[in-house]
């Protein structure tokens, strides 16, 4: 999720924190402009317009280099640093990043220690892992390595790298992590509805949850979960409300980026939305070959703000 999507979802509500897309750390201390590109919220003290903090996520395998980049982005005002040890992408894993580090738990701990030592004491350092790389039998060794890691919180995607995103998520395995580690555990994986979060809480014992694909499929998911937690009756967004979000999303992409690149993010979002809104699937079929932002705006049923490209 980029800054535009973060702003949109946090305005709807229900979120206590956001995390950027990962910033790849491989050879050098990155210039400030790279961090501003991934986290333009740094220009606003690290918060979205609705006041939600945005942690900057780093991905890499060199403790000293990760620490140096964490120090730089912390000095730029990042509200927190998040470390990615869970990305399952083959291209990332082949370059010894993301979930590939689950094979070397001691290296994960070394990175966590180096980053913690490099940033101010008031800056949270969080991380994300999976249950293991090839098998969840690896979890015990990973947890042993993290027992002394100076993390503020740990998010666990309740699947291995090999399992990818295939259902189910094994929420019950997170109870072992909660019993072993001295910091809070955040549950992640297969959270598509308030009832999923409730079942995950029961199975895992967790009280905090990370949403990803679910929030793209249902933009009001965070608010709906919060309402359910407060025993209120959530009123789901209808398709007309979602269409207005799509119009706004297109307009923001068009105003902040080159107009040539404004259409594809809308189409990508429609692919997610169709899992909850069948109308999105029909709309995607209609616009999948559209490349012009004016034509996309017309397809979305909005014309009053359309200008010549």
Textual characterization of the structure:
The protein is α/β, with parallel strands linked by helices. It contains 14 helices and eight strands. Strands 1, 2, 3, 4, 5, 6, 7 and 8 form an eight-stranded parallel β-sheet that branches. Helix 3 runs parallel beside helix 5, helix 5 packs parallel to helix 6 and helix 11 (239-256) runs antiparallel to helix 12. The radius of gyration is 20 Å and the shape is globular. Mean pLDDT is 94; it is low at 303-309.
The number of helical elements comes to 14
- Class of secondary structure makeup: alpha/beta
Give the low-pLDDT segments: 303-309
What is the CATH architecture term of the largest domain?
A: Alpha-Beta Barrel
CATH topology of the largest domain: TIM Barrel
Order of SSEs: HEEHEHEHHEHEHEHEHHHHHH
What's the CATH class label of the largest domain? Alpha Beta
Alpha-carbon distance between the two ends: 25 Å
- Provide the residue-averaged pLDDT: 94
Strand content: 5-15%
| CATH homologous superfamily annotation of the largest domain | Aldolase class I
The gist of it:
The protein has 309 residues and is of the alpha/beta class.
List the helices and strands and how they pair.
Blueprint: H1 3-12, E1 18-19, E2 23-24, H2 32-38, E3 54-59, H3 63-75, E4 81-84, H4 90-94, H5 105-118, E5 125-130, H6 139-146, E6 153-157, H7 174-180, E7 185-188, H8 194-204, E8 209-210, H9 213-217, H10 221-229, H11 239-256, H12 263-273, H13 278-287, H14 293-299
Parallel strand pairs: 1-3, 2-3, 3-4, 4-5, 5-6, 6-7, 7-8
């Amino acid at each position: 999720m980029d800054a535009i999507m973060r702003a949109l979802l946090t305005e709807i509500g229900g979120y206590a924190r956001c995390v950027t897309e990962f910033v790849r750390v491989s050879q050098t201390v990155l210039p400030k402009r790279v961090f501003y590109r991934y986290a333009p919220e740094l220009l606003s003290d690290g918060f979205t317009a609705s006041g939600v903090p945005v942690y900057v996520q780093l991905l890499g395998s060199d403790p000293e280099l990760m620490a140096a980049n964490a120090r730089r982005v912390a000095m730029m005002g990042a509200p927190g640093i998040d470390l990615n040890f869970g990305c399952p992408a083959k291209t990332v894993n082949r370059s010894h990043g993301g979930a590939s580090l689950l094979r070397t738990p001691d290296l994960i701990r070394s990175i966590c220690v180096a980053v913690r030592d490099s940033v101010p004491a008031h800056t949270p350092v969080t991380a994300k892992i999976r249950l293991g790389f090839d098998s969840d039998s690896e979890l015990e060794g990973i947890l042993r390595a993290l027992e002394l890691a100076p993390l503020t919180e740990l998010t666990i995607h309740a699947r291995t790298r090999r399992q990818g995103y295939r259902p189910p998520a094994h929420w019950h395995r997170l109870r072992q992590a909660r019993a072993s580690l001295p910091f809070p555990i955040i549950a992640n994986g297969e959270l598509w509805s308030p009832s999923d979060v409730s079942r995950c809480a029961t199975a895992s014992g967790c009280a905090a949850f990370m949403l990803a694909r679910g929030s793209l499929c249902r933009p009001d998911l965070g608010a709906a979960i919060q309402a359910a937690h407060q025993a209120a009756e959530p009123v789901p967004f209808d398709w007309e409300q979602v269409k207005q979000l799509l119009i706004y999303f297109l307009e923001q992409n068009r105003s902040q980026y080159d107009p040539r690149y404004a259409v594809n993010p809308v189409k990508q979002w429609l692919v997610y939305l169709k899992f909850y809104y069948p109308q999105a699937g029909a709309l995607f079929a209609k616009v999948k070959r559209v490349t012009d932002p004016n034509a996309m705006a017309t397809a979305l049923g909005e014309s009053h703000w359309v200008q010549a490209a």
